[in-house]
């Protein structure tokens, strides 16, 4: 007889010694032979009949309908989770393109991990992710993310893995990568637990490390009665460096012309600069961000071979203004006075 819950299976026990039959019945009762758990209708009666007639024992086991019901229930939940994951992916892209740091980071777990083969070390935790994306959003012009999900598989009811390809455009420069994202379900919500990214197409660049200095790009001027400075900055090919060219004009004569390269030094793992001016001087600087400003500590070899040192502080005010001052100046053993703070204004290029 077939029912929605199961079907009865008939098992015939041939005439065997009682101890053997009892062991056989035990195997049938507990399903050790085929992994199924059965229910013996009347075990004692079957044992009493051994030696007379073959015994027929009815055992309940799950039926095809019950298995199908279970599979349908699991499939329905997976379909629901798949829709939720697709929505999470869309929210991720939207938050990135809208530069919404809070909404973007909320899509990750507290202990989330981001790895990329073009970064020296992984980014771990929401706090580090917040700093990373805030820096990117604050110092990028045109910014757009596109993703193409290739597969979405469920490892368990609480874990899913997405693989695909991503394209990120930053200030007109496109980077394409393959990615693998692990999602975990926490409190009914799917969150990103880790992302592993492998760049497929990208010209060699350290542009990421220079994002914090992106405000320097453009044309800047300072104008006073006896001094004018015209400074222009652009990104190099592949954005490995910022290239700054300047002209310092005094009241009656041209005082100095120079060029400065700012880039990431992979050996020292820091931002450095190299300046060359029309007097033959060479200046090497080490850059660091301190609070709301950048400080550059420099060592100079002047055109006459004398050695000097100085520091510069650069403080962004808004998109069109930054302040600049020079301090801790010396040439040889002689200390020099600080240079008063001046303010640069952006001009259309």
Any key phrases for this structure?
NTF2-like_dom_sf; 10-stranded antiparallel barrel; disordered N terminus; 51% strand; alpha+beta; Nuclear Transport Factor 2, Chain: A; Lipocalin; SnoaL-like domain protein; 349 residues
Report on the structure:
It comes from Stieleria bergensis. Keywords: Signal. Residues 1-22 form the signal peptide. This protein is an alpha+beta fold and 349 residues long. It has three domains: 6-62, no CATH class; 74-202, Roll (Nuclear Transport Factor 2, Chain: A), CATH 3.10.450.50; 209-347, Lipocalin (Beta Barrel). 21% of the residues lie in helices and 51% in strands. The chain contains five helices and 19 strands. It has helices at residues 18-30, 43-48, 64-97, 101-105, 125-138; strands spanning 6-13, 55-62, 108-116, 123-124, 143-156, 159-170, 173-186, 189-201, 218-223, 227-235, 241-250, 254-265, 270-277, 282-290, 293-301, 307-318, 321-331, 334-336, 339-347.
Summarize the structure.
This protein has 349 residues and is of the alpha+beta class.
Secondary structure layout plus pairing:
Blueprint: E1 6-13, H1 18-30, H2 43-48, E2 55-62, H3 64-97, H4 101-105, E3 108-116, E4 123-124, H5 125-138, E5 143-156, E6 159-170, E7 173-186, E8 189-201, E9 218-223, E10 227-235, E11 241-250, E12 254-265, E13 270-277, E14 282-290, E15 293-301, E16 307-318, E17 321-331, E18 334-336, E19 339-347
Parallel strand pairs: 3-8
Antiparallel strand pairs: 1-2, 3-4, 5-6, 6-7, 7-8, 9-10, 9-19, 10-11, 11-12, 12-13, 13-14, 14-15, 15-16, 16-17, 17-18, 17-19
């Amino acid at each position: 007889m077939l029912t929605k819950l199961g079907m009865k299976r008939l098992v015939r026990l041939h005439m065997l010694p009682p101890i053997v039959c009892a062991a056989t019945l035990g195997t049938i009762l507990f399903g050790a032979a085929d992994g199924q758990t059965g229910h013996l209708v009347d075990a004692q009666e079957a044992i009493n009949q051994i030696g007379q007639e073959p015994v027929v024992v009815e055992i309940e086991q799950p039926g095809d309908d019950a298995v199908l019901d279970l599979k349908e229930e699991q499939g329905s939940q997976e379909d629901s989770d798949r829709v939720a994951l697709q929505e999470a992916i869309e929210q991720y892209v939207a938050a990135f393109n809208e530069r919404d740091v809070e909404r973007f980071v909320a899509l990750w777990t507290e202990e989330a991990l981001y790895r990329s083969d073009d970064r020296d070390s992984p980014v771990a935790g929401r706090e580090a992710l917040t700093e990373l994306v805030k820096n990117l959003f604050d110092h990028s012009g045109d910014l757009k993310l596109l993703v193409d999900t290739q597969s979405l598989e469920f490892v368990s009811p609480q874990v899913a893995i997405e693989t695909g390809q991503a394209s990120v455009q930053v200030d007109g420069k496109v980077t394409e990568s393959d990615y693998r994202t692990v999602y975990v379900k926490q409190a009914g919500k799917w969150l990103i637990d880790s992302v592993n990214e492998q760049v497929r197409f990208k010209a060699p660049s350290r542009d990421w490390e220079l994002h914090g200095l992106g405000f320097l790009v453009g044309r800047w001027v300072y104008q006073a009665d006896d001094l004018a400075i015209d400074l222009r900055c652009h990104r190099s090919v592949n954005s490995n460096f910022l290239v700054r060219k300047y002209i310092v004009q005094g009241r009656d004569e041209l005082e100095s012309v120079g060029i400065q390269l700012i880039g990431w030094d992979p050996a020292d793992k820091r931002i450095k600069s190299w300046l060359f001016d029309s007097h033959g001087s060479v200046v090497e600087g080490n850059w660091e961000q301190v609070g709301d400003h950048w400080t550059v500590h420099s060592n100079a070899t002047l055109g006459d071979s004398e050695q000097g040192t100085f520091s510069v502080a650069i403080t962004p005010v808004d998109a069109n203004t930054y302040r600049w001052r020079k301090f801790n100046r010396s040439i040889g053993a002689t200390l020099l006075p600080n240079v008063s703070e001046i303010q640069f204004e952006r001009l259309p290029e």
